[in-house]
Amino acid sequence: MVREWFELTSGTTPTGHTPPLAFRHLFFWLGALLVGSIALVQASHRSETAPARVTLTAADVAEVRLVKSGGGEIPMPPDTPAAHASSLAALPAQHSAQLAAAWFAGERESAPDVRIAFSSFDKAQQQWTPATFVVDRHVLGQQLGFGIRRLGNPVLWCDDNQQLHLFVVGTGLGGWATSRIIHLQQRDGRLNETHPRFEPRAVLPLSWLWNISYLVRNSPVVLADGAVVLPVYFELGSKYPALVKLDPAGGFRGISRISRKPNLLQPAVLPVSERRWFAYMRMSGGTHKIAMAETDDAGNRWQDLPDLELPNPNASVAAVNASGVQTLTFNPSSAGRNQLVTATSADGVRWTISSQLATGEAGDEFSYPAMLWHDNQLWVSYTDRRRHIAWQRFTIQHQAP
After folding, report:
1. Strand spans (E) along 188-313
2. How would DSSP label each residue in 90-151?
3. What is the DSSP letter of 62?
4. Can you give the pTM of this predicted structure?
5. Which residues have a Cβ under 8 Å from the Cβ of 41 and sit 6 or more positions away?
């Protein structure tokens, strides 16, 4: 039944028969109504009480200086005019490349030709390798046995066995709100493979209703035992963030909700200690700020905190612990994405802007940052005007008081 429903709503069947459009729409909206109803019921429960509001100032924040040590554009695949939503992952010390990047690229977002592109930063050459496509929706659909209408939001992770994993958003009929998260894994274990081949492993089992309406955006957090927590978000009816728990090999172990607010998405998780983590979230409505939640038990239970006094124009944010210096990259405006900055903090609550990554004219877009702390360097990648993926690299210097 699950497979038949998705094939009907995506317009494909194993025999190649295309059901009537009205019939496909009926099945899709029946399912959408059910998921939306459940989401609204979940959103109505408020079992946690927010603590007193934190006053955010620059006082008591450790003064650090971000010193730029590199930057530019990651090469695009030939004849590809648009790029968006990059992800970064550290590679093992024995690898010929220092880190890897993945993003989606094609004619435009949601275009039929969008594929997942991949490049790696070569240690010897100190530059990015030529980009290649590693995931195609037609091939992926054939491998999975159902149709995929569009691809988006890749997220990379390298496990302790030096295998790359790739989480990709794939949709059927209905747009991003009917997405599913597809887990792919490196096909073979060749350590120095510059452009790895990926094969689908599973659709993450996140919803009883055919696993639809969950998406991924930000990097997972690797735990001490090698397991990971992958930030995800739900987007049909009511938007809310959640955490997927995976074992060290990538096996599914459960999902838990981060926030009880109904308009948050694309969580970025920042551990400030082994058990205390913060989550920073894009807000699709309300105060046009960055939303925040906290856990004191390694993600089992969360409590909403007051919104940060940092503006956000309904855009993705990224966060990472850079050897004790908390870093956050975001658009510092409530109305546009034509500026992108990185802020630093000693405690994850009070922030000071430390670097202006990009600025442009009204209507320009610098967005969807990804961050990585690797080899004592802070790496940042982001969408540059939807034309390519830009990157910058920094060292961190502590300034004398």
Report:
1. 198-203, 214-216, 221-222, 228-234, 240-246, 252-257, 264-271, 277-283, 291-295, 303-305
2. E--TTSSEEEEEEEEEESSTT-TT-EEEEEEEETTTTEEPPPEEEE-HHHHHHHHTS---EE
3. P
4. 0.85
5. none
Beta strands 318-322; 228-234: pairing state = unpaired
Pair of tokens at residue 66: 């971000």
CA 174, 180, 186 angle in degrees (round to 5)?
A: 140
Instruction: Identify each DSSP E strand in 129-227 by its residue range.
Output: 132-135, 150-158, 164-171, 180-186, 198-203, 214-216, 221-222
Determine contact, residues 73/357, Cβ cutoff 8 Å: no
- 3-state SS class at 3: helix
Place 336 in a pLDDT band, splitting at 50, 70 and 90.
very high
CB 330 within 8 A of CB 343: yes
Cβ proximity of 262 and 286 under 8 Å: no
Residue 386 φ/ψ region, left for φ over 0, alpha for ψ in the -120 to 50 degree band, beta for the rest: left
Question: How far is the C-alpha of 397 from the C-alpha of 344, rounded, in Å?
Answer: 12
Which contiguous run of DSSP H or E holds residue 397?
Answer: strand 388-398
Please tell me the distance from the alpha carbon of residue 200 to that of residue 187, in angstroms, as a whole number: 9
User: What pLDDT does residue 191 have?
Assistant: 58
Question: Which among 87, 376, 26 is positioned nearest to 217, based on CA atoms?
Answer: 87
**Which tokens go with 328?**
């956050």
Contact 8, 19 (CB under 8 A): yes
How close are the terminal C-alpha atoms of the chain, in Å? 65
pLDDT band at 192 (very low <50, low <70, confident <90, very high): low
The packing angle between helices 2-10 and 21-44, to 10°, is 120
3-class DSSP state of 164: strand
| Helix count and strand count (H, E) for the chain | 3, 26
pLDDT digits 0-9 by tens, 341-363? 999 999 999 999 999 999 999 99
Residue type, 114: V
Q: What Å distances lie between residue 217 and 63, 121, 166, 359, 385, CA to CA?
A: 30, 21, 11, 23, 19
Beta-bridge mates of residue 242: 232, 257
Q: Is the dihedral of CA 255, 223, 99, 332 positive or negative?
A: positive
DSSP code of 39?
A: H
